[in-house]
Amino acid sequence: MTTAPQHTGPEPLWSPGPERIARAQVTRFQEWAAERHGAPAAVPGDPAASYAALHRWSVDELETFWQAFTEWSGVRFSHPCERVLADRSMPGARWFPGAALNYAEHALRAAEDPARADEPALLAVDETHEPRPVTWAELRRQVGSLAAELRRLGVRPGDRVSGYLPNIPQAVVAFLATAAVGGVWTSCAPDFGARSVLDRFQQVEPVVLFTVDGYRYGGKEHERTGTVAELRAGLPTLRAVVHIPLLGTPAPEGALEWDALVAADTEPVFEQVPFDHPLWVLYSSGTTGLPKAIVQSQGGILVEHLKQLSLHCDLGPGDRFFWYTSTGWMMWNFLVSGLLVGSTVVLYDGSPGHPDTGAQWRVAERTGATLYGTSAAYVMACRKAEVHPGRDFDLSRVKCVATTGSPLPPDGFRWLHDEVAEDMWIASVSGGTDVCSCFAGAVPTLPVHIGELQAPCLGTDLQAWDPHGKPVVDEVGELVVTAPMPSMPVRFWNDPDGTRYRESYFEMFPGVWRHGDWITLTSRGSVVIHGRSDSTLNRQGVRMGSADIYEVVERLPEIRESLVIGAEQPDGGYWMPLFVHLAPGARLDDALLDRIKRTIRENLSPRHVPDEVIEVPAIPHTLTGKRIEVPVKRLLQGTPLEKAVNPGSVDDADLLKFYEELGKKRR
Ligand SMILES: CC(=O)CC(=O)O
């Protein structure tokens, strides 16, 4: 017997069919956990109620959920834990104390299966768009060889190993070998300049640097030997530099050759480390001061990523997982974790727009990607450039197109549905570097509604709070997480008493993670992200997300990109300028100005209409491509440039001078 679905509301854009729901790993996990661990059984015929019950249980019974999940996914503890969550405080939660394991061992599990040894673990693609496989056996061999060499070089558990590398197989091998040894990985993409890299790596004092001589991007070679020399000079703790000759340059003096280090046939030895042993250091955008050096643990990332990739992304052996990213963004770390569930990971090292805007779709086609992830900005750029992926590429293997980086606007959902495939699972997901994961996003058994993330993730007690700390539903509130997640930072590097860590997340609501995003949890169980709460627009007490304004303004073909700021003025007033970067050939004349204002008024509200529209040469971004809002606001309020922003965290620091001048003029 089936019961009628409990949840009503607007028509979804897409719904999974019964077969897909039955096959989904989250469905199988629920059945298994209901039998063995007292999880609520699925509600027949009502996937939304089933997921809602499973989610409720996963946060109410947090320890049981993680116990069940680690059993279900076969996590190998070489030493069992005393309990799952010994201390729930935030910060300071203690997960799986006493347990020992190794992340890299799990990432190479599929290589132990003789039937899979010759299948690709990695598919590496450059701008030729020709996939080059690295088999599971080969990946395991290289990791074994390199881990032995790292040990020979004196790398011990806890030592930092750095990579100045593009998204190439060598980066994956170097990371896994570091994790196998118990070392702490950290990476920057080679488009970061020396100052940006040193701001990051100097904090963690690496003993080894893996580096390329340069990289190819947008059809051009970008030589990096000068920057590498600066890095070597600026990192006195280095005991070894490993040279990867991507452009064919001979190794500089004193550097070791990559090929020699991965040549041996050595069985990997996986150091068994405590659950909370550091796996890597990631860096937050770091808009002022040095970037935050976020430490996440081997065990925390292992279980959180296993959960994300199996239950939420529904990935497993047989899948090909492609996410467009660089090694400087946490999505690279997330992508590599695709190995944990035995999927083939697609590494694309190149420009998203070379030779044309459709490049990423071509890579998805050529590699047979089954889950293709990208940034919401790329989707919107394809829409603007009138790319027709469904018409021009064979995307028949793609089961899910996922987006992150910023909320996917409603038009992005419609475009993917119309231009890629009508029967396409579109997963807009959101989390951050701070947890190297998602708070809300993909659920293979749930429908997709335009402009919404499908649901909060399992084991994530996601809530929207009003300023008094009261949970709200169907209303915009602060994104908070009221119970610990295993991938929350174990600490920040260089923050001995934890002050910076506490100030970053736990100040507004003590003991509760406040992320800094505006969010709505809908009564239907879905989630809407409205943008950063620390750059919120607040007009006459009405709070608005900047993302809503970008979404409507950037529908106009004349607007390439925009930036909206709300700046409190010394006289108690509020100034809300909209900065626009125009498309080639467009002019900000009265007619366009009028259209911008009208579009905002009609699609949002008269309150959203900016006080001024100002043309700028370009919009500044963080190195991971996010629009810089808070520092621009501070510049407009008269904060000097050197105090408002760390130039090393910006894609084009010169752009900021314009905002500083404007701020000065308005004083
Ligand atoms: C998962 C994410 O939230 C990624 C990001 O936007 O940085």
Automatic annotation (TrEMBL):
Residues 117-484 form the AMP-dependent synthetase/ligase domain. Keywords: ATP-binding, Ligase, Nucleotide-binding. One of its GO terms (biological process) is lipid metabolic process. The keyword ATP-binding applies. SUPFAM superfamilies: Acetyl-CoA synthetase-like. GO terms for molecular function: acetoacetate-CoA ligase activity; ATP binding. Pfam families: ACAS_N, AMP-binding, AMP-binding_C. Residues 551-626 form the AMP-binding enzyme C-terminal domain. Residues 51-107 form the Acetyl-coenzyme A synthetase N-terminal domain. NCBIfam families: ac_ac_CoA_syn, PRK03584.1. Belongs to the ATP-dependent AMP-binding enzyme family. This is Acetoacetate--CoA ligase. The lineage of its organism: Bacteria, Bacillati, Actinomycetota, Actinomycetes, Streptosporangiales.
